[in-house]
Design a protein that fits this description.
alpha/beta, six-stranded parallel β-sheet, 8 helices, 14 strands, 23% strand
């Protein structure tokens, strides 16, 4: 009989937490019991997972006793407060926030890209930014084939990346579009003084601005890509934009390889890439779109073009469900890979 694992989901009432619970069941993850953990406000409520009803418990240190895997998706403050407590009690923490991503002692993992990093964990493993995950899934096989020297990415990120309040704001503004003056309160950054409507609009700001003019989201993409791919000197720049789409992040990516690849070689590499689906037939208008990537596991890539001037330059378009491969699914795949590599025992 295969080993069974005790699992905890921190932030179980949130969008990502719920997706983690759904995917654990869908993928037949070998769990013997699930603990649903949330704030004291939600403690005592019930939720169903896989046909079983669980009572939501308050997330506090003693809740992690006996837990093998703890999936955190309740915000950076909660992770900073409880992740090390959970790890100290023997749990492997897989954290969906930015709290530990750039910690040199914490692996930042996309299983299709750098599973070897799991050997170095000290009880906490960081799940990368959603936009970073889908991009490196496409970059890594091309890097393995021809090297990688430059990346310029512009993102088109869905509002679900900002949580339920942003989805509600888009819905309300869309219904009121043209009927009344919107009164935005959430986007682009709830904690900042200025807010702009998202319905019928694009917001070229995700998270706060840094001193260099890039936003924190853009810096996350840039720094995380270098760490995951072990390319500290990679030339990379990002522009991140919030768009009026509920789910599914899209990215326009320009990259330069060290060796020239033909279009057919690029397509062959990406067709064979784990977790990637090629949708690239412009004659039939086939290309990735967020509407059709929603609730789908893979990373989709298309609109592949050779740059008209730079012989090693490649343009492509990447789309994925930001709540699945961008968060919940990647977290579970990390746990699955750890079991496969015998990095954890029940």
């Amino acid at each position: 009989m295969s080993e069974q694992y005790q699992v905890a989901i921190v932030g179980a009432t949130g969008a990502v937490g719920q997706k983690i619970a759904e995917k654990l069941v869908e993928r037949n993850f070998p769990y013997s019991h699930i603990k649903l953990l949330a704030s004291s406000r939600s403690a005592g409520q019930t939720a169903k997972v896989g046909g079983h009803t669980y009572t939501i418990e308050e997330a506090k240190p003693e809740a992690f006793d006996g837990v093998d895997f703890a999936f955190f998706s309740a915000g950076g403050d909660v992770s900073r407060k409880l992740a090390k407590e959970a790890a100290a009690r023997g749990a492997v923490v897989i954290d969906n926030t930015s709290a530990f991503r750039m910690d040199p002692d914490t692996p930042l993992v996309v299983p299709e890209v750098n599973p070897q990093a799991l050997h170095e964990h000290n009880g906490i493993i960081a799940n990368p930014n959603c936009s970073t995950i889908q991009m490196v899934c496409v970059l890594e096989p091309l890097r393995q084939k021809a090297g990688l020297k430059k990346v310029i990415v512009s993102t088109y990120q869905a509002v679900s990346g900002s949580g339920a309040a942003a989805i509600d704001e888009l819905t309300k503004e869309s219904h009121a579009l043209g009927l009344s003056e919107p009164s935005p309160q959430v986007l682009p950054v709830k904690s900042q003084p200025k807010h702009y409507p998202i319905a019928g609009n694009l917001l070229p700001q995700i998270d706060v601005f840094e001193e260099n003019g890039f936003t924190f989201e853009e810096m996350k993409m840039m720094n995380e890509t270098k760490k995951i791919m072990s390319l500290p000197d990679l030339s990379i720049a990002a522009t991140c934009v919030r768009v009026p789409v509920v789910t599914g992040h899209s990215e326009s990516v320009y990259l330069e390889t060290e060796q020239e690849l033909s279009l057919q070689e690029i397509r062959d590499v990406l067709t064979a890439a784990e977790g990637v689906v090629l949708q690239d037939d412009p004659t039939a208008q086939v290309y990735p779109m967020p509407l059709y990537a929603t609730d789908e596991d893979p990373v989709f890539v298309g609109r592949i073009r050779k740059d008209p001037v730079e012989k090693t330059g490649i343009h492509l378009w990447i789309v994925a469900d930001n709540l699945l491969k961008g968060a919940a699914l990647n977290s579970i795949q990390i746990a699955e890979k750890m079991i496969e590599q015998k990095e954890v025992s029940s």
